[in-house]
User: Fold this.
Amino acid sequence: RLTYIERTGLLTLTKEELTGGMIPIEPKTPNFDANILILDDKTKILMINCYFPSNGGKKDNTKKFEDAAKELIRIRETAKRKSKNQKLYTVSTGDYNYCIVGHRRDKKRTLIMKEMIRYLESSYHVPDIPTHKSRSWELSESHLDGVTIEDGLLLDRMTVLDEEYFPEKASDHYPLMMDIKIQTVIKKKKK
Assistant:
């Protein structure tokens, strides 16, 4: 059996006009990349790109998974404190290493996900097609990647960037691209 090395890469892409108003939130682990985007005078959005540890069959992996959920919640609490008097919406996306089909019998992992989603006041979304194709297990596909979207936001579209977008197949996970709608204040230009 080959030695397995877990590598993570996190990236959040936004429209150029939003990057000037980004406030980074420092995570305690390299599994997260978090930024507050200032949308207008009253509205911000916390974008969290995340990686949750895989099941891997080891006993301590459930603890690491739970620690990742707690860190995601901690990041949100930190951002809320920095955004007093302003509405802050939270969107987290990435590799949750939780498949709504394949892990449904894993009661502990399922409970951790449900509690995290409830605490974040969010809903959890995965695309219609699998985002992970195992290199170790032939024909194994799963929905390990997804997004939590806080109530008040609308997931308008989710696209899996599969072989059509990345024919070189550098990863066994496909990235997600989403259009999310949010209500903001419209400033009228003075004449």
The beta strands are 22-25, 32-38, 43-51, 87-95, 122-125, 132-133, 141-142, 145-150, 154-160, 176-181. The chain is about 20% helix and 30% strand.
